Amino acid sequence: MSRLITQTISSILAISFMTVLASCKSHDAINFESNTKDELIEFMDGNAGQVVSISVVDSAKTYQYHLGALENGNTPNNQTIYEIGSLTKTYTGLAVAKAIHDGKVELDKDIRHYLKNNEYKNLELFSQHITLRHLLTHTSGLPGNFAASHEDIEQGRYFEKISKYSRDDYFDDLTKVKLNSIPGEDYLYSSVGTNLAGYILESVYQKPFELLISEMITSKSGEQGTKFRRTNTEISEVTVGSDGNGNQMPLASAYWFAGGGLTSNVESITRYIQHQLSSEPEVALSHQLLDESWTGHGKAFYWHTAKDDSNELMLYQSGGSMGTSSWLVIYPKRKIGIFIVTNVAGENTQPKLEAISEKVFDYLIAYNKALKLDG
Predict the structure, then answer these.
(1) Rounded to whole angstroms, how far apart are CA atoms 109 and 131?
(2) Which of 6, 130, 351, 367 falls between 20 and 30 A from 45, CA-CA?
(3) C-alpha torsion 310→360→341→241, nearest 10
(4) Is the pLDDT reported for residue 184 higher than 70?
């Protein structure tokens, strides 16, 4: 009799446990979308005119959400064009990887080998020359920007300065620049260095950088919306953003180059993520660690790198313009990528996007575990 009671109690407990487990699995699966949207809603905090778009790629599956309304009342969608700022650098890095794969450039060769008609004796310090490795990891010793100074930004002259800055101006400044540190020693985030990588690619391929990005990347990935927009008609397609105080900001991407000039939309960046998760040889090369610290953080081809909770490599980059902020993270082994963009560029906007990305990643992992258990 006691044995029968014991078996009955065990069965009841087992059924109860399975019921609770099924409930948890269902909860995780159902709430992935709502949890993600809740994070975005909390981030926007009811700010009028602010929008946010997100794309989550998980192997062959994609999840894309758009929240908020623009000043004209329109809700963003997969075709809404945004400036993506320094996410452009990852395209430049991928193009450099392709050039290495093609045998056009070498990672550790003196970059002056690729610069014609000038010796640029100033591009070395204590007999140490700059290499593409240094450009790709922001350790070249070159300054952050040429076109405008911090004083220009503080006094409101930044847009006027960059709108008049030309390629000739860049190379004139390059002949005069003094390196801040010995190449390879110190980190300094440098759009000057990234633009130089773009000019080197133009030199070795004898093609405009914009055409190279199209041929090497966007035509392969199918990114019809990712492009440099220079004409007034093209610029008018781009979403206008604001600073953290609600002031409308001008669009700067038309005057930026390899360090930040691209614009795109959710549909195209989704395709870019899928391309970054592909088996293309230049993609694998571009994920190669070029520099790593004792903390586990490192740098690849214009990617920052770290390890996730499972000790797997993750690559990330933030993108900021004068009125737009974006975040892109790739988990190559897991075949996961997350892109978030908003039309606000406040002081803490990008760190907030990073935090949202981490939570969305956790929601996705929980969701996948739930689906696996249900299966």
Answers:
(1) 5
(2) 367
(3) -130
(4) yes
Q: What is the dihedral of CA 67, 71, 77, 82, to 10 degrees?
A: -100
Strand order from edge to edge, sheet including 82-83: 82-83, 262-264, 227-228
Q: How many residues would you count in the chain?
A: 375
pLDDT at 16 over 90: no
Q: Model pTM?
A: 0.91
**Domain annotation covers residue 15:** no
Q: Which amino acid is at 117?
A: N
Q: CA-CA distance, 358 to 308, in Å (whole number)? A: 10
162 in Cβ contact with 148 (< 8 Å): yes
Predicted confidence (pLDDT) per residue in 89-133, tens digit = 999 999 999 999 999 999 999 999 999 767 899 999 999 999 999
**Residue 73, domain extent:** 33-374
**Band of pLDDT at residue 19, cut at 50, 70 and 90:** very low
- CATH number of the domain where residue 177 is located: 3.40.710.10
Half-sphere exposure of 25 (CA within 13 A, CB side): 14
Helix, strand, or coil (residue 298): strand
**pLDDT tens digit string along 22-76?**
434 444 556 899 999 999 999 998 888 899 999 999 988 999 999 999 888 889 9
Which amino acid is it at 343?
N
> Is the pLDDT score of 21 beyond 60?
no
Q: What is the residue type of 21? A: L
The rounded mean pLDDT for the chain is 89
In a domain, 267, yes or no: yes
238 inside domain: yes
φ and ψ at 135, to 5 degrees? Answer: -65, -45
Cβ-contact 95, 216 below 8 angstroms:
yes
Angle at 13 between CA 7 and CA 14, to 5 degrees: 85
- Please say whether the dihedral angle defined by the alpha carbons of residues 194, 200, 205 and 211, taken in this order, is positive or negative: positive
**CA-to-CA distance for 225 and 202, rounded, in angstroms?**
22
User: How many structural domains is the chain composed of?
Assistant: 1
In a domain, 26, yes or no: no
**Dihedral angle over CA of 274, 275, 278, 283, nearest 10:** -140
